[in-house]
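Possible regression after last week's pipeline update?

I re-ran a chain I had predicted before the update to compare outputs. Posting the input and the new output here so someone can diff against the archived version. Not blocking, just want to make sure nothing changed silently.
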Amino acid sequence: MNEELQAQLTGILGYIEESVKSAGGFAIEQAPEIVQQLLAWELAENIILSTITVVVFIVSVVFIKKMFPLKKDRWGDVDFGAGLMLAGLIFTSVISFILSICGILAALQIIIAPKIYLIEYAARLMRIVN
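New output (post-update):
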């Protein structure tokens, strides 16, 4: 009975070892494709986010230009609501401009230096894990 259990255990351990080796081989074979897909996804994500922020920036600038002649009340003072809205639009346009520049730079890094991007991506993942 003991010999049968050892034989079954040896068979199971052999099966597990073969499974691990084949899974490791599969991961190594698929690594280049996974890296290409990661780079493609990150590039697409950065382009989409940059496009959205550029659109928000343009819309903000157009609203600011249309609204620039601030309406004055009958005493010559600037309307507080219009000034507050202008300040909010300027803030939105500045933030969207900064975010679009960051997205464009990340997309350019993926195109020009993908290995450096992957190293920085791995470093970010290590910071998250630790």
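Follow-up from reviewer: compared with the archived run. The mean pLDDT is 78. Marking as no regression found.
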